[in-house]
Amino acid sequence: MENAHTKSATEVLDNFGVNENTGLTQEQVKVSVERYGPNGKSLWELVVEQFEDLLVRILLLAACVSFVLALFEEGEETTTAFVEPIVILLILIANAVIGVWQERNAENAIEALKEYEPEMGKVYRMNRKAVQRIKARDIVPGDTWRWQVSFGDKVPADIRLTSIRSTTLRVDQSILTGESVSVIKHTDPVPDPRAVNQDKKNMLFSGTNIASGRAIGVVIATGVTTEIGKIRNQMASTEQEKTPLQQKLDEFGQQLSKVISLVCVAVWVINIGHFGDPVHGGSWVRGAIYYFKIAVALAVAAIPEGLPAVITTCLALGTRRMAKKNAIVRSLPSVETLGCTSVICSDKTGTLTTNQMSVCRMFVVDKVEDSNCSLHEFSITGSTYAPEGQILKGDIPVNCGDYDGLLELATVCAMCNDSSLDYNEAKGVYEKVGEATETALTTLVEKMNVFKSDLSGLSKVERAGACNSVIKQLMRKEFTLEFSRDRKSMSVYCTPVKPGSQSKMFIKGAPESVIERCQYVRLGTGKVALTPALRDQLLSKIREWGTGRDTLRCLALATHDTPPRKEVMDLENSSKFAQYELGLTFVGCVGMLDPPRKEVIGSVRLCNEAGIRVIMITGDNKGTAVAICRRIGIFGEEEDVVGKAYTGREFDDLPAEAQRDAVKRARCFARVEPAHKSKIVGYLQSFDEITAMTGDGVNDAPALKKAEIGIAMGSGTAVAKSASEMVLSDDNFSTIVAAVEEGRAIYNNMKQFIRYLISSNVGEVVCIFLTAILGLPEALIPVQLLWVNLVTDGLPATALGFNPPDLDIMDKPPRNPKEPLISGWLFFRYLAIGGYVGLGTVSAATWWYLFDDEGPQVTFYQLRHFMQCTEDNPLFKGVECEVFESRYPTTMALSVLVTIEMFNSLNSLSENQSLLRMPPWVNIWLLGAIILSMSLHFLILYIEPLPLIFQVTPLHWSQWIVVLKISFPVILLDEALKYISRNHLEGTFTFPMNKPTENLPKREIERRRAGSGGGGCVFCSPLYRRVSQSVSHLTGTARASARRVHGLYQHSAHLISG
Asked: Which residues are catalytic?
């Protein structure tokens, strides 16, 4: 039924043709039944999705081709030929398993909604004369639902209330709307068809909890048509956005695939003339297959197979460091995304605030002179349910027992109250039992301690209700006149435990309503008449509290000193309650709010310094939201919020273009629904903002899933946690700032090892390409390339992820998510390094053929035409053709490749700083990785049967000397290129330089040092702190850099020494 909240109860009943006392007939039930069910992807579809990535498809093709070619191998290569395709397939299988596992975990967000689906419901149906309990899934629209008080039970469907059978019906719908206090429901129509869920006071929503009361209503929506069902559909239809790193790697894959295709085809075409060489037995087909194998080897060399594993390892290490800071990461790629977060959209309740109502101000009347009154105003410290805090008058702590007015105020708070405090020993925190508003009053009484009780020897469990117990020992509660909408108050009838004293009523409620029924004002132990002038003064002060900076929720407290005898009071008729609450005496007023977390102000300030915009998105009213924004620094104290704060209704009324402009400016959205949150996130993403969305309720889940970073609170719902990428175990907004800092550090380190791996792969491509173009024997085979890419390169790359963050990393604005991993100048640098790696590898193999004492010492011409080697060919007289199949040259080439890349990993310690200023020992993990990689290389050379598998052979000491001579110059080359970056390019281009750390507070520097993690104490050394402020991201083009390369080698010695 559309807009059931706008219809009267009679119209809703008539629409379904039902009666409150009979319900649906069996025929009506059959007509109304509709079946709903999620349509999930099959396991096979999830597996296929993992192979849609271009890099994966290229690797799969290479594996298939290698497998087919291995079938035709002969001799000792028959076994080893299968190693390459098997290794590649194992990589792809592992990748697919991880991908499917992550996909299945993502669907847990939808399954977690079942936590809020009640199992049973109570309805009337005509086949029985009484209320019957049926399974919630069998409830259909039109069913007449009946409920009796049962605290915490869940509503089974969306229901339009038709009658309330108790004084009030209270519902906790915080999981759906984010409201921190329970809502009082009624049956009157809500005429606004566009009313948000918070304003639909005549509706109950599926999954919300009954707090108190009894009611009857008509089911209007079930399954996916309920409000919580709509959230489920929205989550199911939300596509997960790729992280900036994933997007960059996708782009890299596309570019790499094009380059691979061109180079492979070029190598194959260029060598068409060699297809019929004698080495192939004169068979053109065998020659074509041979060069096809070289093309496949080239593809294997070009693909950085180890990159996914290294990235995963680095991100996993980052998640461990974040977990120590109470940020639990559920999605590894989101670790890197945190580093470029530019907007944090935060829910208010429970995220920026404590979600624990707290009395922060109160007043009692001090003096009345000539219709003017002076007040005793007090402020209260403490922002949680913990009974810890001071009562201040001005800035001076006071003893509440010294004020008679406060003694009676505490009595009203304690007696007119059905809630209590409880200490949760497992969690180590105080929790509410009952209503949040009443628990705030209970906590206030504990802080006031008006009878000056000795609390020092009490346990925390005993401390939870100690002061309230003292008051309740003096008075006995007889009965309660429950809250009603007409009088907007509740009261309790109490008799003194000590005989002979007068019974009293204690009243609390909305100030306007309570003060209207007051005739007196309490002054000390006496009272004076409440004149219209006094009433106006009191209401003026209360309005000031309710509309000012704090926007407090105010409650007036009063007593009835001479109530009617309880025997003459009609307790069954709530319409007479107001008559019993006349002639009251005003005692005082308390102002409460859901206070901001004490750490939030500093966290918001740090976000501002880091260039991150914080936007509050809440279901609460606009006045309260703006007030909290002012308190925590999202808005300034006097800042005009026009155009910067909107309600959901105001936002909807704007045209689409105006909505886009509003999202650009706004920092506060109030009275919003889940659809608003997702729309706001969508607009931010259209501006290329990287958005982090925080929340803890079901209502936050769709936006959590849509945002690049969904951040759930540890105390939040399972739905929110499952839809998020990160969970804050301490529910602390400031933890987000620490996570962003860690994310920025991880990205900087990832740039270094990604560039290191890419330059290594460029070297491998150059090696294969040169051997193919020059007609030389194979320098490297695919299985050797796989070993290098996955193992020996992977370990130093992983170690590069241990570099700690710069001290001023949070003083820089967020990086542009479209910032390339490799700029024009850097691309030239890594082409130069990669070119040297490839040239050095080929040179090592060639040296063995031409100059090694144990080699054949053939001529370079003979080497280039080795495929024409036969016993009858006079050009190869005295040369045994089998020498061109020796394992020594490939072993030399592989050893140079591994060694040169170990030296190159040292180059990657810093993008532009010399090794003389940033020596290798600043990262002991990298030194350990280099030692381990070289040990593994020695393992495959000297331990049987590994040499057979990798087709290598042990080298002699003289050969190792040559390996080192060829490998070491890569450091000299990169030092020269770094020198150009530091001393020439910076004068041509403008770079955002790091802010000096001397301007940072000492305490902040120490905090960041302590939180750097992952690198050990070596990173805290003075040496590291001096060199850690490297120049930031460089840009440029190959053309600009090429003009400065002239004379590079002539100055290299000077560069290293200086």
From this structure: 347
